[in-house]
Amino acid sequence: MASEKTIGRLSLYRRLLDRLLVQGKSHVYSHQLAALAGGTAAQVRRDIMSVGYSGSPTRGYEIRELIRCIGNVLDDLHGAGAALVGVGNLGRAIMAYFSGRRPHLAIVAAFDKDVYKVNRVIHGCPVYSSDDLRQVIAEKKIRVGIITVPGNQAQEVADQLVSAGVSGILNFAPVPLRTPEHVYADDLDVTMSLEKVAFFARQKSLEKEAVKP
Amino acid sequence: MASEKTIGRLSLYRRLLDRLLVQGKSHVYSHQLAALAGGTAAQVRRDIMSVGYSGSPTRGYEIRELIRCIGNVLDDLHGAGAALVGVGNLGRAIMAYFSGRRPHLAIVAAFDKDVYKVNRVIHGCPVYSSDDLRQVIAEKKIRVGIITVPGNQAQEVADQLVSAGVSGILNFAPVPLRTPEHVYADDLDVTMSLEKVAFFARQKSLEKEAVKP
DNA sequence: TGTTGTGAATCTCTTCACAGCT
DNA sequence: AGCTGTGAAGAGATTCACAACA
């Protein structure tokens, strides 16, 4: 089975391949894809191995076919809908971003506690009251939740999502979630990322100054 | 030197420790911090080793002092300002989120091409024209850039930021950035994260069904 | 020649396990 | 007794390097 890191890169490769296709390309070599993805050719070849597709030593990979094989691995055959909880700034930004982008992985329901936000349609997606979360998720057979509520409500929302039956959660709140073993949760912690960048930016600055004193 | 992963976790630990402090706690054991952070006690101890602080076998770590030591590693002594480029939905969400949160790492300038957005103050942060990017970044000695523009403009903005002198970039656009070796860049790819969650959610569902058929 | 696919080596990160301390 | 700090082992991911191929 493909590792977590590999799955992430496959998602990236697919988008890059889509772009190449639009540009009229039909084949690509591992080193070209690696350059676009910011990785090495060997890594690209290994990742592609895991989807069970083989390229040709002379022409490289056939883009259309490779996209199809990646889709076989990544996509749910019947399409998958996601639910977003927390229609604030960030929630709306994410709804806007995914609106009409990938039909097989769309945000099909949003939830908020604020009565002024519910019963509206934002970026093509209906907003429900958080009270109806369990029911809507069951009806629409939603298996993925996206949490964009403030940190102090994130765990509570996660518990509701899990109890409603989702098996994957993408969490934007700055709090690591506690979830049962049968649920996959990924924390996308912006504060952490920014502090990390700030730290390594400082390192790089110091290196520069050390060279040219 | 601390690894990339360790730096990220230190940022998380610090926020958790802040919370504990507010709750009136004064000491914490590695296994408690690990539970909050979703890691193991051994990992917490190793991470803390790298900031050069030692706890007591009887009382654990003194929270206030540990926060200080983590700050010594993570924070720039003189504070660090970040610049955000792209005042759209996502840009505003991030500005709102960091507004007044961490004084030593604030977003001190935002940029946009849209004339209706420039010369305003959003979430306490002045918005400048993208034309003035180089000048403002030099004046304010900004070393960290945040990219929240659409994918097709991201690389161009990154090049401008690099040429203006930043040494770290946090990129939200769904395109891996090409940056010179002396610049640290982190791509925070939401599409990738969501597709990863959807994939592993499906795995988990299948596991569940396999057990209870 | 220049590519793919892949075993083997390497590198990095995590966990184990226990001495030492209080 | 129960914790910390850490050497050593283990697990995982990446890169090397080369046979096989067109």
In short:
Two copies of one chain form a homodimer. Chain A is an alpha/beta fold and 213 residues long.
Keywords:
9 strands; DNA-binding; homodimer; 213 residues; 47% helix; globular; 8 helices; two-stranded antiparallel ribbon; alpha/beta
Describe the structure.
2 copies of one chain form a homodimer. Helices cover 47% and strands 17% of the residues of chain A. Chain A has helices at 4-22, 30-37, 41-49, 63-74, 89-98, 133-139, 151-164, 190-211, and strands spanning 27-28, 61-62, 80-85, 105-112, 121-122, 125-129, 144-147, 168-171, 184-187. Chain A has a 7-stranded mixed sheet with strand order 5-6-4-3-7-8-9. A two-stranded antiparallel sheet of chain A has the order 1-2. The mean pLDDT of chain A is 95. Chain A is an alpha/beta fold and 213 residues long. In chain A, strand 7, helix 7 and strand 8 form a beta-alpha-beta unit. The first copy, chain A, has 8 helices and 9 strands. Chains A and B meet through helix 1, helix 5, strand 8, strand 9 and helix 8 of A and helix 1, helix 5, strand 8, strand 9 and helix 8 of B. The structure holds a DNA duplex (22 and 22 nucleotides).
Distance between the termini of chain A: 50 Å
What share of residues are in beta strands of chain A? 15-25%
Which outline of chain A best applies?
globular
According to DSSP, the number of beta strands of chain A is 9
Topology of chain A as a string of helices (H) and strands (E): HEHHEHEHEEEHEHEEH
Mean pLDDT of chain A, as a whole number? 95
Oligomer: homodimer
What summary fits the major beta sheet of chain A? 7 strands, mixed
Q: Which blocks of ≥5 consecutive residues of chain A have pLDDT under 50?
A: none
Secondary structure tally, helices of chain A = 8
